[in-house]
Amino acid sequence: MFSFTEENYLKSIVQLTVFEEGVDEVGVNRLAVYLDVKPATVTDMVKKLKAKGLINYQRYGKVSLTEEGRLIGLRVVRKHRLWETFLHDKLKFNWDQIHEIAEQLEHVNSSELTNRLDAFLGFPEFDPHGDAIPRADGSITMPYRKLLNEAVPDQLYRIIAVSDNSNEFLRLFDEMGLNINDEVQMLVRNDYDGLLHILFNGKERTISPKFAENIYVVCAKCGKAKACNCN
Amino acid sequence: MFSFTEENYLKSIVQLTVFEEGVDEVGVNRLAVYLDVKPATVTDMVKKLKAKGLINYQRYGKVSLTEEGRLIGLRVVRKHRLWETFLHDKLKFNWDQIHEIAEQLEHVNSSELTNRLDAFLGFPEFDPHGDAIPRADGSITMPYRKLLNEAVPDQLYRIIAVSDNSNEFLRLFDEMGLNINDEVQMLVRNDYDGLLHILFNGKERTISPKFAENIYVVCAKCGKAKACNCN
DNA sequence: TCGCAGCGTTAGATTGATCTAACAAAAGCC
DNA sequence: GGCTTTTGTTAGATCAATCTAACGCTGCGA
């Protein structure tokens, strides 16, 4: 149906719009960096995808998904996250090993397979990194969340996801003793260098803003990310 | 490491030598038919694989595997058969649906994944079609077997494998009520057109030689394929 | 033993995905 | 508003895998 490469472009656009940035269009350079290819390559590919009716685009403009492109991209993300869940839950891989393998598995083409895998895993809603798994019809439950970096002092949060899937980040996360669903409290933010002092599992730790901005949290009491009236 | 395509060539050579024909070399045309490409394409690829030290070959000669090529090809077959087992045993696919999906899964590159999958499945020795699954070190248990087509009258056989993975064959096999491990007896072979009359599960059926030559059997009593002294 | 059918090769073209280098447009800044 | 930086495009090349068409070997059978 669609090539390995085309699928990767659509998946990346989904990731950069629907998921990461909360906007609905993305520039050619941003895409090139994300896909680790040169901008010239993206320009070519983007013309091809437009010709196929999968994206909206015009010379020197930004790229956004058409309805069809969005569905295909979401389907790849769905497969990726289901396979990650399989690798983690069934094959007992550490969560810092699963991303690269899922990059390959996500391109296996068989909706029957995807749906049976989904059932085999018990229709999970979130993958091991806490990210929402799109459903077969392309719908997603986007949890209302904020970055730990944006936490306000004294409020109690619950970690629900991480946004960096690199081995380095995930290993550091593990080594600190953190886990998805842990409760964490931000004590003080250092205005000079942005370091955060946090409290979790009775331990007090100092973390960098770079680390904190890859951790998603919700209010531990009401589950909402917005400043709430819980405390 | 090796491209999708290179892996497919090596896998096919393994299949046509180690498994199907019991010889150790294969011609360019035979390979071209098997891979569904033109002979000219095979000639090119074969030069490339020779340059990489994966096969033995010279102009106008036949192709055979080097030790390294054999290992890589067997690794692909191993992955294919493990995935088929997964699809059948865990995801409950019918055995006529699994081949095409496994064709895609077999190219996922991660020995860690392959070995964990192997363990998850309980280290199976045979896939759902009854074919031996090569082990991680490249060793294989080749069962001593013969084709149902070559069965002698009155002896009792046990079906251990099939050699045609096409949907048409497998569906017919199912519809007749046959199963791997069923016991079957050849009653009469019609000398004129080769039709076979067989008996299994108390049913008597007439089958074509084309059908019978895709079914592997062993002696039901001693497990050996050779004419034995059991009866 | 010789000719021809079948097997295998070569040359040249195509397609998809990528690159580099040079250029063009848009955005940002004073 | 004009200069500079950032962003994006174009042209032309490369590489892998494939094709077609034409040609070169080889071995079997008469």
Folded structure, characterized:
Two copies of one chain form a homodimer. With 231 residues, chain A is α+β, with helices and mostly antiparallel strands. Chain A has two domains: 1-142, Winged helix-like DNA-binding domain superfamily/Winged helix DNA-binding domain (Arc Repressor Mutant, subunit A), CATH 1.10.10.10; 146-219, SH3 type barrels (Roll), CATH 2.30.30.90. Chain A is 40% helix and 15% strand. Chain A has eight helices and eight strands, in the order H-H-H-E-E-H-H-H-E-E-H-E-E-E-H-E. Chain A has helices at 4-21, 28-35, 39-51, 67-89, 98-105, 111-120, 167-175, 209-212; strands at residues 55-56, 64-65, 146-147, 156-162, 183-189, 196-200, 203-207, 215-219. A six-stranded antiparallel beta sheet of chain A has the order 3-8-4-5-6-7. A two-stranded antiparallel sheet of chain A has the order 1-2. In chain A, a hairpin with a 2-residue loop joins strand 6 and strand 7. In chain A, helix 2 crosses helix 3. The radius of gyration of chain A is 19 Å and the shape is globular. The relative contact order of chain A is 0.10. Chains A and B meet through helix 5 and helix 6 of A and helix 5 and helix 6 of B. Chain A binds a DNA duplex (30 and 30 nucleotides) through residues 3, 5, 27-29, 37-45, 48, 59-61.
Name a few traits of the molecule.
SH3 type barrels; Arc Repressor Mutant, subunit A; alpha+beta; two-stranded antiparallel sheet; about 230 residues; DNA-binding; homodimer; 2 domains; six-stranded antiparallel β-sheet
